[in-house]
C-alpha cells in the first residue's frame, strides 16, 4: 500500500515540476490504436480488370452449372460455392491479376504444378480445402475444371 502512495506522489511531483498547475496537465493523452479496415471480396472484384472479372464470371458459371444444389455465398474474404459444404472458395487478387481458389481435394492425389497448384495442408489460409489453385488466364481455368468437379463430388 505504501509503495502505491509513493508512486502517486512521484507522479504528482513530476507533474508539478514540469510547470503544470492544478487542474491542468502537460501529460499528453494516449492515442487510441488506429482501426484497420480491410476491403471485402466484392470491393476487390469491383476494382479488378475487365479480364479478371470475366474470368471470375466463367468460374462462377462453371461452378453453378455443376448442379441445381450449388449456391453462391459472398463471405467477407471470398466467394463460396457450396453444395452440402463449400467445395470452392474463391479469392480475387486484382493486383496480381489472378483468382485464388481453394478446393476440397487431397493434394497427394494429384501432381502439384508450381505456380498453379499448391498443397495447403498445415498452412493457415481463409479458404476451405487443402488444395490452392491460382488462375490467371482462361487456359488455367480450363485446367482447373476437372479439379473443381472432383471437389464438387467430394462435398
Annotate the secondary structure layout.
Layout: H1 2-17, H2 41-46, H3 50-65, E1 71-74, E2 79-82, E3 86-93, E4 98-103, E5 117-119, E6 131-135, H4 138-154
Antiparallel strand pairs: 1-2, 2-3, 3-4, 4-6, 5-6
Question: Short summary of the structure?
Answer:
The mean pLDDT is 84. The longest helix is centred in the C-terminal third of the chain and has 17 residues, at 138-154. It contains four helices and six strands; from the N terminus they run αααββββββα.
Structure report:
With 155 residues, the protein is α+β, with helices and mostly antiparallel strands. 35% of the residues lie in helices and 19% in strands. It has four helices and six strands, in the order αααββββββα. It has a six-stranded antiparallel sheet with strand order 1-2-3-4-6-5. α3 (50-65) packs parallel to α4. The protein is globular and about 50 Å long. The mean pLDDT is 84.
CA gyration radius, whole angstroms: 26 Å
Could you say which overall geometry the principal axes of the C-alpha atoms support? Answer: globular
- Count of runs of 4 or more consecutive helical residues: 4
Tell me the β content.
15-25%
H/E topology pattern: HHHEEEEEEH
Strand order of the largest sheet: 1-2-3-4-6-5
Largest sheet, strands/sense/barrel: 6 strands, antiparallel
Poorly predicted parts? none
Mean pLDDT: 84
Quickly give the structural class.
Answer: alpha+beta
Helix content bin: 25-40%
Terminal CA distance: 63 Å
Total strand segments: 6
Amino acid at each position: 500500500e505504501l509503495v502505491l502512495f509513493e508512486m502517486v506522489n512521484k507522479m504528482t511531483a513530476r507533474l508539478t515540476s514540469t510547470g503544470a498547475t492544478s487542474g491542468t496537465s502537460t501529460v499528453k493523452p494516449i492515442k487510441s490504436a488506429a482501426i484497420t479496415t480491410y476491403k471485402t471480396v466484392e470491393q476487390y472484384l469491383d476494382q479488378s480488370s475487365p479480364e479478371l472479372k470475366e474470368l471470375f464470371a466463367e468460374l462462377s458459371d462453371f461452378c453453378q452449372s455443376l448442379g441445381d444444389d450449388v449456391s453462391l455465398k459472398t463471405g467477407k474474404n471470398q466467394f463460396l460455392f457450396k453444395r452440402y459444404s463449400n467445395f470452392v472458395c474463391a479469392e480475387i487478387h486484382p493486383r496480381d491479376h489472378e483468382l485464388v481458389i481453394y478446393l476440397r481435394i487431397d493434394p497427394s492425389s494429384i501432381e502439384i504444378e508450381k505456380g498453379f497448384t499448391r498443397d495447403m495442408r498445415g498452412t493457415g489460409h481463409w479458404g476451405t480445402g487443402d488444395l490452392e489453385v491460382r488462375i490467371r488466364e482462361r487456359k488455367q481455368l480450363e485446367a482447373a475444371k476437372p479439379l473443381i468437379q472432383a471437389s464438387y463430388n467430394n462435398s
